[in-house]
Amino acid sequence: MSKADLILEKKRHGEKIVAITAYDAPTARIEAEAGVDIILVGDSVGVNVLGYSHEREVTLADMAHHIAAVRRGAPEAYLMGDLPYATYDTPEMALASARLLRDAGADCVKFEGAQPGLVAALVSEGFDVCGHLGLESQHQDVKRRQGKTAAAAAKLYDDALAGDAAGQKFLVLELVPQELAGRITRAIKSATIGIGAGPQTDGQVLVVNDLAGVTTREFKHNRRYGQVSAALRDAVSAYANEVRNGAFPEAQHAFHMAEDERAAFEA
Ligand code: KIV
Ligand code: NA
C-alpha cells in the first residue's frame, strides 16, 4: 500500500489524520518523532519564515529549498508541498512545477482552487494531489471565512466533489463552516484536512509557528500549545546579559594550549 493509501485508511476506519506544517529540517525531525501523519511545506513559509508580506511572493525555488530541508529532517515522512501562486496556470505549468517539488522531496502537491482538470492532469502523471478550498490565501486578499451563504456553500460542495472525482487524495478545507466541512467529508473519498473548519473533517492541519507560539498573533482557528517565541526571547536575553556581565563563557567552555606549545608560542 502506498504511503497516501495508508493515511486514507484512517478515513475509512474513522481515525483522525494529523497534519502540520514544517519549513526546516530540525522542526520536521521533531514532528516525525512526534508521529504526525502528514507534514505540509506550505507557502505559509513566506510569511512565517521568509519575512514576506504575502503568500504570493513565494517562488518555486523557495518551495524546493524548504521541501528539500524538510525531507532531510524527516526522510520517511509523507510530505505535501504547495504549488506557489501563478505556477499552475495551465496543466503544462502545473506538471513542470509539480516535478520540481517532487524532485525536492515532496510526495504530494497541493494547490488552491477548483480545478479538476489540473487534478486529473497531475494524477495521470503519477502525482498525489491535495486540493485546497475555502480560504485561498493566494487568490483572496482578505483572510475571511468562506462558504457562509447557501449559494457559496453549494458551490464549495460541488467543487469538492469535482476534485474528488478527478482523483485528488486529500482536500484541505480552510475557514469553511463546520456543517459544510462535515457534508463534504461524508460525500467524498478524499480525506478532508480542516483548518478552522470544525471537528467533522477527517483530519486537522495547523501552522507549526502558530501552535508552538512562534507566532504571537492570535487566530480564532488556532490553539497555542507552546510558547516558543517567549522561550527564545528569554534564552537570547539571558545570553546577552551573561556576555555583558562576564558570566559567560566559563572555564568549561574554553581550553588551554599544552604547556610546551604555549611556551614556544610565547617565546
Ligand atoms: O500554506 C499553508 O500552511 C497551508 C495551510 C494553512 C493548509 O496551506
Ligand atoms: Na498554503
UniProtKB/TrEMBL annotation:
CDD domains according to UniProt: KPHMT-like
GO molecular function: 3-methyl-2-oxobutanoate hydroxymethyltransferase activity; magnesium ion binding; methyltransferase activity
The EC number(s) this enzyme carries: 2.1.2.11
Pfam families, per the entry: Pantoate_transf
Keyword Cytoplasm attributed: no
Superkingdom of this protein's organism: Bacteria
Cofactor binding note from Swiss-Prot or TrEMBL: Binds 1 Mg(2+) ion per subunit.
Entry-linked InterPro entries: Pantoate_hydroxy_MeTrfase, Pyrv/PenolPyrv_kinase-like_dom, Pyrv_kinase-like_dom_sf
Biological processes annotated in GO: methylation; pantothenate biosynthetic process
Binding site for 3-methyl-2-oxobutanoate: D43, S44, D82, K110
Residues that coordinate or bind Mg(2+): D43, D82, E112
Active site location: E174
Any one GO CC term of the record: cytoplasm
Family: Belongs to the PanB family.
UniProt cross-references to PANTHER family, sorted A to Z: 3-METHYL-2-OXOBUTANOATE HYDROXYMETHYLTRANSFERASE
Protein name: 3-methyl-2-oxobutanoate hydroxymethyltransferase
Organism encoding this protein: Methylocystis parvus
